[in-house]
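This is your field. Have a critical look at the following sequence-structure pair:

***
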Amino acid sequence: MKIQNEAYVEIDYTLTDQTGKVVDKSEPGSPLGFIYGQGQIIPGLEKAIAGMGVDESKNVVVPPSEGYGDVSEEMFQEIPKDNFPSDSTLTAGQEFQANTPHGVMRFVIHEIKDDAIVVDLNHPLAGQDLHFDVKIVTVREATDDELNPHCNGGHECSSCGHH
C-alpha cells in the first residue's frame, strides 16, 4: 500500500536545522505514527511523502511556509518585568515556559528594557528551512478508532457515522 488519505503511517525521521544540527528525531524502535491527510504533521512533510511505500526513504527540505511559518513581528510582546521572578537573572536568549489556558507555552527573551521584557512567542523553528531524513516504516488502512479517536462507537455520533 502507498501513502494516501486516511492511511495510518509510521515514519522514522531525523529533523535538522539549516546548520545541520539535529533538532528532533524518532527514537529507535518508536516511529512517529499519524493518519495521513489529517494535518497531524507539518504540511510540507506530509505533501513530500505522498505515494511512498514501506522501506522507502527520502530527504526533504520544507520551507517555512509549509513548516512553522515565517517569523512574525506580532509574536514579539512586552511583558511587565514584575511578572518574572524577582530573584532571577534575565538575559536575552533565555528560554522560559509558562502555563496558559491552552497548555504550556515556550518563549524566549528577546530584549530587556527598564520596566519590561520583550519576549518572542514564535515557534523556535519559525523562519527556517527544515531538513528531514525520513523512512517509511508502516503504511496501512487506518482503523475506525484511529480515524475517530473521540468516538467509542457505543452511541450515535453524527461526526463519526456510528449509530
Residues 48 and 159 are 29 Å apart (CA to CA). The first helix runs from residue 43 to 48. The chain has a mean pLDDT of 90. The two ends are 30 Å apart (CA to CA).
